Amino acid sequence: MTGYSVSTSGLGVSYGRTAALTDVTIDLAPDRIHGLLGRNGAGKSTLLSTIASLRAPSAGTVAVDGGDPFEDERRMEHTCLVRECGDVIGDESLKVNLDWFALARPSFDRMYAESLLDRFGLDPRKKPQALSRGQASAFGVVVGLASRSPLTMFDEVHLGMDAPSRNTFYEALLADFAEHPRTIVVSSHLISEIETMLETVTIIDQGRLLLSEEADDLRARGVTLTGPADAVDRLTAGQTVIGSRDLGPTRQATLFGDLDTAVLDRAADHGVTAGPVPLQDLFIHLTERTSRTEAHA
Ligand SMILES: Nc1ncnc2c1ncn2[C@@H]1O[C@H](COP(=O)(O)OP(=O)(O)OP(=O)(O)O)[C@@H](O)[C@H]1O
After folding, report:
1. What distance in angstroms lies between residue 47's CA and the mean position of ligand 1's atoms?
2. What keywords are annotated for this sequence in UniProt (predicted)?
3. Among 63, 57, 64, which residue's Cα sits nearest to residue 11?
């Protein structure tokens, strides 16, 4: 079974008078790993729960695998949204919960789920209500991965897990995705750890779409220049500098936007090296700038 595509058109979602999403139009291709990034309250959870048909749009449309997922049995049972709040039976053992997921999810792989429980050090006899926050998150990851759903979405689920467990999650996700390609969406406001596995990046800010593009294209819009301060200043004059820091006489400046390639070509002649910019830095810049713009509007 191949992954589902996801698209939204002019999507709006409101909670009473609060507009959580406004005019969001995105297209997420099947069988890829997509990152959904946004600051606290940006609307990530609202977008994912609307795609999963847990919430109805106030405006616009959502299409999963080319059709409306709302109350559509096939699309809903093949869509798995893992949220921090759990969606598990709290007073039954993990083993019984897995039995239940195996019945509810057509592609669920029970043996894989048990091997993941083992990898995360989770006791199948324990009940979800007796798990720590990190263990509960890990159980969500087990369910999400073992569901092998054509559309699997992890809503900031890794944030409560410790570093070794997060690493286990990333490794398991990449290995299982290689063997069973499907559409994966990972939402987060902590990007540095997950950025290498993201193929596309969608950023929402204050309920509006900021960008949705290939991760490599976004990275290509930023560059760091490191070298003697005066040489870096000469090269960056007239360009959009989004950050700068000094270490003794050495300056590192981060540029973003339509980069002047002539500058990059000249950099080496001036003893300046050009390097990539972490997505996290671009994300901070992009979301800071919009917040400031709106604040001063
Ligand atoms: N049940 C609700 N009732 C009213 N407002 C809500 C509700 N849920 C979310 N909101 C509001 O909708 C907006 C988007 O919230 P959402 O939870 O989707 O953001 P998020 O990007 O997932 O945030 P975070 O990273 O902090 O989890 C916020 O302004 C939030 O206060």
Report:
1. 10
2. ATP-binding, Nucleotide-binding
3. 57
- What is the C-alpha R_g of the chain? 22
Which two three-digit tokens encode residue 142? 């087990």
**For residue 40, how far is its CA from the centre of ligand 1 (angstroms)?**
8
The structure tokens listed for 6 are: 């996801």
Which two three-digit tokens encode residue 229? 């301060």
- Give the model's confidence band at 295: pLDDT under 50 very low, under 70 low, under 90 confident, else very high: very low
The first and second tokens of residue 27, run together, are: 């297209």
pLDDT at 197 > cutoff 70: yes
Residue 258 pLDDT more than 90? no
Distance between Cα 172 and ligand 1 center (Å)? 29
Write down how long the chain is: 297
Distance CA 93, CA 127 (A): 4
**Residue 169: count of CB within 10 angstroms of its CB:** 27
- Considering the entire predicted model, what is its pTM? 0.90
Testing ligand 1's pocket by substitution, the residue of 17, 46, 191, 202 carrying the most ligand atoms inside 8 A of its CB is 46
What pLDDT, on the 0 to 100 scale, is given for residue 296?
41
Could you give the C-alpha distances from 259 to 131, 151, 212, 238, in angstroms and in order? Answer: 49, 36, 20, 11
Q: What is the spatial order of strands in the sheet that 6-15 belongs to?
A: 18-28, 6-15, 59-64
Structure ipTM? 0.97
